[in-house]
């Protein structure tokens, strides 16, 4: 399905680009989130006329994301979890637990921002976690998983 991007999408394109994506991705995510429009002549003219406004809105969003990243950059959080007698975790530490740990130290971080490419943390130790606030703005924080 051909769509016109109204926001910069990482690994997809810039504002105003006409791209081909799967219909499910377009109908279920991009269009409802106002990140894209169906590709038609009138929509293309609309996006071209509003391109500067859309770019300015995207720049504001990026500036807000940069401010949030600067606020949490270099922060080290500690998460205490219950463990067995052998030192294995009961369960795991996921994006929700990391987000809640940031909220406890008064840094608002949404769980959708936390990137765990290898899945939830299932062992005790220190980890470097990436927080992706915007496709172009990210920071690395230290997360320490310790026994209760």
Question: How would you characterize this protein structure?
Answer:
With 148 residues, this protein is an alpha+beta fold. The chain folds into two domains: 2-60, 3-Layer(aba) Sandwich (Ribosomal Protein L9, domain 1), CATH 3.40.5; 73-147, Ribosomal Protein L9, domain 2 (Roll), CATH 3.10.430.100. Helices cover 34% and strands 26% of the residues. It has three helices and seven strands, in the order ββαβαβαβββ. The chain has helices spanning 23-30, 41-72, 95-104, and strands spanning 2-5, 18-20, 36-38, 76-81, 114-115, 125-134, 137-147. Strands 4-7-6-5 form a four-stranded mixed sheet. β6 and β7 form a beta hairpin. The model has no long low-confidence stretch (mean pLDDT 89).
N-end to C-end Cα span:
51 Å
- Helical region count? 3
Order of helices and strands: EEHEHEHEEE
Major β-sheet annotation: 4 strands, mixed
Low-confidence stretches: none
Rg measurement, Å: 20 Å
């Amino acid at each position: 399905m051909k769509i016109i991007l109204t926001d910069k999408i990482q690994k997809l394109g810039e504002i105003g680009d006409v791209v081909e994506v799967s219909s499910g991705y377009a109908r279920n995510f991009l269009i409802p989130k106002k990140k894209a429009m169906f590709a038609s002549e009138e929509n293309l003219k609309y996006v071209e006329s509003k391109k500067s406004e859309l770019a300015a809105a995207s720049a504001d969003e990026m500036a807000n994301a940069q401010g949030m990243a600067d606020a949490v950059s270099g922060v080290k959080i500690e998460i205490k979890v219950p463990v067995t007698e052998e030192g294995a975790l009961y369960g795991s530490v996921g994006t929700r637990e990391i987000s809640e740990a940031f909220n406890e130290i008064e840094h608002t971080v949404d769980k959708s921002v936390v990137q765990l490419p290898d899945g939830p943390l299932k062992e005790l130790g220190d980890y470097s976690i990436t927080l992706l606030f915007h496709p172009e703005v990210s920071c690395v924080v230290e997360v320490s998983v310790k026994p209760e």
